[in-house]
Amino acid sequence: MSDETYITRFPEIREPLLREKSSPGKNKRLVPEPFDPFDGNESLTAGDLPDLPDVSEPETVRHFTRLSRLNYGIDHGMYPLGSCTMKYNPKILEEIAGRICPIHPSDKAGMKSVLGHLKLLQGCLEEICGMDASCLWPAAGAHGELTGMMVISKAIESRGESRKKVLIPDTAHGTNPSSCTLAGFVTENIPSCPDGFLRAEILKEYLDSDVAAVMITNPNTLGIFEAEIHKIADLLHENGSLLYMDGANLNAIMGAARPGDMGVDCMHVNLHKTFGTPHGGGGPGSGPVLVKKHLTPFLPVPRIISDNKGEDTLWWDAPESIGSVHGFLGNVGVLIKALVYILSLGGKGIKDASQTACLNANYLRTRLKKSFDLPYDTPTLHEFVLSDKIQSDSGVTTLDMAKALMDHAFHPPTVYFPLVVHGSIMVEPTETESIEELDRFVCAMEEIARMAQDDPESLHSSPITCPTGRLDEVWAARNLVLSWNSLESKRYTRLSK
Amino acid sequence: MSYLTLNPEGLQKVLETIGIENPEDVYSGIPETLLSSKDLDIPGPLDEEAVRSRFTFDSSNVVFAGGGVYRHHIPSIVNALSSRQEFYTAYTPYQPEISQGTLQAIFEYQSMLSGLTGMYASNASMYDGATALAEAALMAVRKKKVRRILYTRTINPSYRAVMMTYLRHIPDLELTEIPYDPLTGRADTDVLKEKTTGDAALFIQQPNFFGIIEPMEEIASIAQDAGFFGIAVSEAMSLGLLSPPGAYGPDVVVGDAQSFGNPVSAGGPLLGFLCTSKTHIRNMPGRIAGLTRDTSGRESFCLTLSTREQHIRREKATSNICTNQGLCALRAAIYLSAMGPEGLRKAATQCASGARHLMKGMEERGITPIFNGPVFNEFVVKMEETKQTAMIADGIVPGIPISRHYPEISDGLLVTVTEMNTKEDCACLMKHI
Amino acid sequence: MNIPKDLLYTKDHEWGRIEDGAIRVGITDYAQSELGDIVFVELVEEGSKIAAGDPIGTLESVKAVSEVYAPVGGTIKSINNALEDSPELVNEDCYNEAWMTLIEMDDPAEAQELMDARAYGEYLASESK
Predict the structure, then answer these.
(1) Mean pLDDT of all residues in chain A?
(2) For chain B, which end, N or C, has fewer CB atoms within 10 Å of the first or last residue's CB respectively?
């Protein structure tokens, strides 16, 4: 069964750059002018006006509206992106977060009304994760990882020890080793087993007195729950090392199991993944860090505490803290959205969300393994990995299949990650997808598998129904045109439609 | 509220397909000892009306606070356009064929930021001004074999604090704070000159935390002897009035562009930015959108120079940054287009005018700015706590107390004026003096 | 796979041509095809002293970054500046136009330890198994 319905129709217009529409005098913005313009001999004012395009409001609106129509969004269709948890973004989140817009961080009255909610968010996250304390200020998952690793570094330092090594499984996300480097560590890879697990036996061979921590993702990027995690934690603690958990895949286990119960000492969560806040085309996200009691002293400042009047206030006097990791309080708007999400669902709703995420993923896995190679037989939770082994026999790559999916009105799954699988295709539907959408996806994938057999050539030219075909990334990197100011020398003639 | 779509019929189909009896069986891979025995102790579920009633907030009516986060006029089209779902629910543009909206908007944002700062290129954003400065310091250490960091005391204290956190693990790095002239409030250029060497990186803020405009020509000339020179801009609106910082030859210009179209929002999300000269492009952290063409020659955009980034370079990456402040950058692009060159100049001029109006009014009532250097839209006065408290009780935020960070300035108050304040606001404040 | 007979080779896929007490270095056909389209080349500057195995340059494609290593120790006599503007030369003509570095050798005997064309060919064959 092939699916002929195009869920999104991209417009065929080509929208020029703002600069190309600019002409002096077009912009007629009436700016608030409450004060008499200052005069004086101060040579403050630059001679030239700011270097900006001069376009009218209607033109600005048309421009960005047209641009938006060249985008795929989660409200169009599924993004089965493994480890990204692209779930539905509830609109009530936007409405409520909008209410804090006028509050300046130095407005004590305003901030008082915000801090109570932030404290509740901390409590909810700690409860879901089984941890003792938390810090909401990291602005993204990678920022949370960096913060967590700095906390671990300080904790070890405060013992009077010096440990420089962090062990990371070969299935880890790229931010893991780069965060370690930024925190001053050196990283070493531990191989996962052929069945996808990280085993305590293997870890033992790598443990020595220089190991500060292991960074684990659970479930891992193959979607497999690391069943030996508690054994691993025990081994590490005996060795004086700590266990850090990348919480990117938390959506699999909320309400079912808690990282704190698994022996995790420190972890981060991604609010823009697990807790439904929108991805924004690349942020803003939020990556709160959670720790066990023994690491609390090292968390960043400030902390939210109750003062002697019983009111929530910010506390800066924590001598063992790693210091500040953000200029203010992180992405507060995102924090409020996550709290609205958590309270809207409630405890049971959160548990159901995770469970359904796992059910949806296993539904897809069962159906797709008929036409695609499933490299790991091991049970998986909210995501699973396929490879291009079968299709590559006819010269079709994972890249071809990903691009072909776009012609079926889907965003492709995560591809070429984790590195341990050749031509990896990581699929995570999330819990907010309907059976109909899941079935539509299976149809599209089966159609592509069929094309790979019958007409592989056609897949090399996909996508053909999107605003552009495949892009020349080599041209982009060789010519490096990063701004319209360096455009003229690199311009080439456009082919007419 | 639930956003699931699985009804009993759907659930049956799913369980049958997978081949399990009960939904909980999907967790068979989790050892029994790790399965939670208790339910989550979390309030809810709440319906939307309950949510609306629960989340009420306060804010003061008259606000003269800045210090790194600024209240500015945001044209209505910024919200209208950035709340289009195609923009705000979209993922990172790793698949450029269906992300041209995001990519072109990023390219335009980059173009406008590099134009305003007078630098060669900008990245797609950083978390905030503080982390942007920290990353600039790392650039200096990484590229130029810099062994010393010179930074002025007049850089925003939270920027300095974050920079320290990021630098703490780097061995043999000398950090030296450059004092300010207590009369002018400007960086002490004599000390600066004395301390500047070829293996030093020099960082200043313009306008500085006290709102004072630093002597750029002099500093630029001193910086020529330094190994690396960075300028931090925390009030991006200043770029609408002052000469572009790029004119003074820095290696990087970093800071926060929250002033462009993003609300103060209790301090976040903000919009860190990082602009660089041509030499440092490959050393720049963060995502970058670049021009390219597709298979039929159509002009289009994609993320480029990805080999610097964490997903390829891993432990050797220029930074670990992945998700940045994408939607905030989009809002800035819409804002700058909505304002245009004259609009931005007018708004910036109003900020400077407002500051002078309030300074004059306060001076007439005996409260003088403690520094005599030229200001943009912020200035420091001495005001006893009791006066501040009285104003706050009256719904006025007179400014930001700064003595915690600058104990040498007792009762110090940083006052900020923008085009969002009015003459009546100023009169309200002055009534209390 | 093109493996010129008159050159010497390393396990890291660099080639070397002896020229009067100096050695001219580049990367092999195998290396350039593995890396894909080269977008940027960065070379350690002239005058630098390096030991065998030290990095003398970095090659960037869209998918990866790779280091180029010195086959022998010495001083860098000159580098190929053409590669800055035309990195694609590495893909087009890796053995001639896309030479990277000319090293004045400290000890010419060190070059004896490099592989000849046949040994490199066998090495490539065994690698791919």
Answers:
(1) 93
(2) C
